Amino acid sequence: MQDYALPGPMHEWAKVRVYEDVPETLSYLARKYTLGVATNAGTSDAEAVRKALERGGIGRYIGPIFAMKEVGFMKPQPGFFDYAMKKLGQTESEICMVGDSFQNDVLGVVQLGIAAIWLNRGGPEIRRGHGYSTIHSFSDLKDLF
Known about the structure:
The chain is an alpha/beta fold and 145 residues long. The protein has six helices and five strands, in the order αβαβααβαββα.
């Protein structure tokens, strides 16, 4: 979903926009994987995030939601991801983080041994390293999974 950085919870914003490539890609991935959300949104708990996803028409594809407000840690703190893995009952090798913040969504999890994919919609830069790669469109995930 596009983050307009407006005040208040996203589900209360006048406009909520889902990128065009997201619904089809989520539908494809949800057939094989459990999909979740990990967010540092400061004003939203999991219920508020779910409402925003529903407004965008993609809530049906998303399972667990881990919101900083409830987890008690922010990404990229290890406690955030430890909490999520414990709740999921999965280990580092069983999950993959896809996110648009290289610092919060990629570097933090790679240091924990979790695979990561940086979604860089904003430019041509490609970063690759041990445990992570770069995509420029959400639909690129269909080629990776």
